[in-house]
C-alpha cells in the first residue's frame, strides 16, 4: 500500500471513528443527551482524533526517517569498489540509484552493480511501506477502539477536543513564526559571511558601488566596491518623490471621499481607487519606462534641462501613483473612524465643513494617517519592478531627480540574476542589502503599528 | 434637505387656543388621542415651529409637532426614551442636516426668519443657536483648546488675554474651573464623563449663543454639579432662550417655565411647567409624571 493510499484510508477510518464515537455516546446516554458531559459530536471528534492523529504523526515520522535510512542501507550493501569513493561521488551514485528507482533518465549506461542496488532499494522501500501500513492501521484502530471504549457519561470530550484544536492553532502560528525567523536568520548569516570579506563599515558608509569582481585570478577588472550609500540614497530619493505624489493626492481624495462625496459616489469611487493597488507593478513599470520617462525627458529638453532617459523622477512619480490607494484607503478608514459626534460638536458650534475637517477631523485622525503613510513608505522602499524598469542601474550618488539612480532592490535583482557563483562577495552582497532593507522596513512598520495602535485606544 | 413650507400652516394647527379644561373634562381625553393639549403658542415668540415632521428614511420620528419657544424662557422637553426629544431639538439648529436619510418638513422660524430657507447660512445659524449634545463629545484637544475652539473660528477674541478670559469665564460658569484650572493643557477626552459634559457646556456657551439647546446636560452629573448647571441655566435665561431635554422631572420643574411632553413622536401636552406638574390634562402626561409609564 503506497503512503498516499494509506493516508486516504486513515482519513476514511477517522471519519468512521467519528460516526462510531457519536453513536456510542448516544447509546451511553440512553437518549438522555443532557446527562452527557459534552454534545455527541464532541465524542465523535474525540474518537476521530484518537484514531487519526497518532497514526498520522507516525506516518510523517516514518516517511521522514525512511528517506535517510534506506539510502544508508543501500550504500552499506554496495560493492566496495563503488563504496570507497569520495563523498561527492557517492552522492552522485546514490542519486543515480534513486533515479533508477523512480524511473527517471539516468546519466550514463547503467552499471549492473547500480542496477542491483536499485533493485535492493526498491525492495527495501516495499518492505518499509508494508510495515508502515501495518503500524499505522493498527495504531488507528487501536486509538479508535480505546477512545470508543472510554466514552462514558462523565468523559470530558469537549475539553479534550478543544485542547487539541488549540494545539493545532499553536502549531500553525509556530510554523509562521519559525519561517520568518528562519528567513531572517539565513539572511543574517549570509550577510555575516559577506561582512567577512567586505568590512561592515565599508558597506554602510562607502560611497562607491560597483560590485563587479574578478572571477578568475588572471582577469582584468575591478576588485569590487561595496558602498551601499548610493543605493540607499537612490531609494530614499525615489521614495521621497513617490510620497510627495502619494501623500497629498491620497489624503485629499480620502477627505473628499469620506467627507464630501455622497454615499453612491463613494461606493463607486472607493473600489475604483483601490483597483490602482491591484495593478501588477510590472505594468506600472513599463508605463513608467515607456511613457513617463520619455515624456519627462522631452519636456525637460524643451526647458533646456538635461534629463537622462531613465530618471528618478519618472520612477518616483509612477511609484507615487501606485501608492495613492494605500494612503487614501487607510486614511479614509481612519477618517471614517472619527466619531460622528466629533463632527456634530464642531458643526454645533457653527464651524464650516472645511474648518471641521482641518481643526477636528484631521488632528483626530492624524496618528492613523501617519501610520498609513509609514506603511506606504515601507511599501515604496521595498518596491522593485518600477525602479528596475524606469530608474536605471547606475549607482549615482545624487540628489538630482532628473538623473538616473538605482535602488537597493534593483541592485539585489541585478546581483542575483544570471549565473552566479554562490559564495562570491558579489552574491553575498545581495543578502547584506536585503538585511538592511529588511531592518529599515521593519523599523518603519513597527513605528507605524505603534502609532496606529495608539490611535485606536483614543475613542474606546 | 427638502422643506415644505405651508403658507396656511397656522390654520391647520390642531391645538390652537384651547380653553382651560375643567377637571371633569380631563378624564374624557382618551389615552389614544394624540392631538396636542395645552398652550403651544406664546405671545412674543423667539422661535415658532409649525407642523414639524421628521423622517429617518421611511420611519417617522416626529409627527406634526407645533410649538413656540418664548423669549427669555426655558422650555423643558420630557418624555420616555426614544420618543423623539433629541430629534426635535436637533431640528432647531439644523443638526439633522448631518444625518444621512433624515428629512425635516414643516416651518421653523427664528425671529420670523425661516431657518430651512435655501438662502440661509447654516453655519451662522448654528453659531447663534448653540447645542450641548446628549453624549459628551469633547474634541481630542486640550481642555483649553476645546473651549477656545468656537471663539477662535468665529474670531471672537482678538488676543490671548481675551481668549483666556473667555475660557476662564466659560469654565467657571459650567462649574468646571476649579477641577481643571491646573491642567488646561491636558486632553479633554481624559476627563471623567461628568467633567466632559460640563466641558461641552463650557464650549457651547463660549461662543455666546442667543439660543441654547441642551440635550440632557446633567445626565452624568452629581447633585452639586447639577445645581451648578441649573444655576447657569437660570443665569442664561436672563438674556437668552433655552430649550432643555431632561429625564428628571424635578429638574424640569426647577429650571423651566414651560414644559412639553412628547410621546412616540407626538407632542402630547405643552403648557406652564407648574400646571403640567400639578395638573396634567392628558392621561399620558399624568401617567408619565406620576411614574406610571411602562
Ligand atoms: N440617526 C438616526 N437614524 C435612524 N433613526 C433614528 C436616528 N436617531 C434617532 N432615531 C429614531 O428616532 C426615534 C427618536 O429618537 P431620539 O433620539 O430623538 O429619542 P429621544 O427622545 O432623544 O430618546 P432618549 O431619551 O433615549 O435620548 C427613535 O425611535 C430612534 O430610533
Ligand atoms: Mg435623546
Please describe what this structure looks like:
The complex is a heterodimer of chains A (460) and B (294). Chain A has helices spanning 3-29, 40-77, 80-83, 87-102, 112-150, 157-197, 200-205, 229-260, 263-278, 281-302, 312-337, 340-348, 353-382, 385-390, 408-416, 425-456; strands at 209-210, 225-226. With 460 residues, chain A is mostly helical. Chain A has two domains: 3-155, no CATH class; 225-459, MetI-like (MetI-like fold), CATH 1.10.3720.10. In chain A, strands 1-2 form a two-stranded antiparallel sheet. In chain A, α2 (40-77) runs antiparallel to α5 (112-150). The longest helix of chain A is centred in the middle third of the chain and has 41 residues, at 157-197. Chain A is flat and about 80 Å long. The model of chain A has no long low-confidence stretch (mean pLDDT 86). Chain B has 294 residues and is of the alpha/beta class. In chain B, 34% of the residues lie in helices and 23% in strands. A seven-stranded mixed beta sheet of chain B has the order 1-11-10-4-9-8-7, sandwiched between helices. Chain B starts with 8 loop residues before the first helix and ends in a 5-residue tail after the last helix. The model of chain B is unreliable at 1-25 (pLDDT under 50). At the A-B interface, α12 and α13 of A face α4, α5 and α8 of B. Bound molecules: adenosine-5'-triphosphate and magnesium ion (MG). Residues 56, 59, 61, 79, 81-87, 99, 134 of chain B line the site of adenosine-5'-triphosphate.
Core attributes:
heterodimer, A: mainly alpha, two-stranded antiparallel sheet, 2 strands, B: 294 residues, alpha/beta, 11 strands, disordered N terminus, binds adenosine-5'-triphosphate, binds magnesium ion
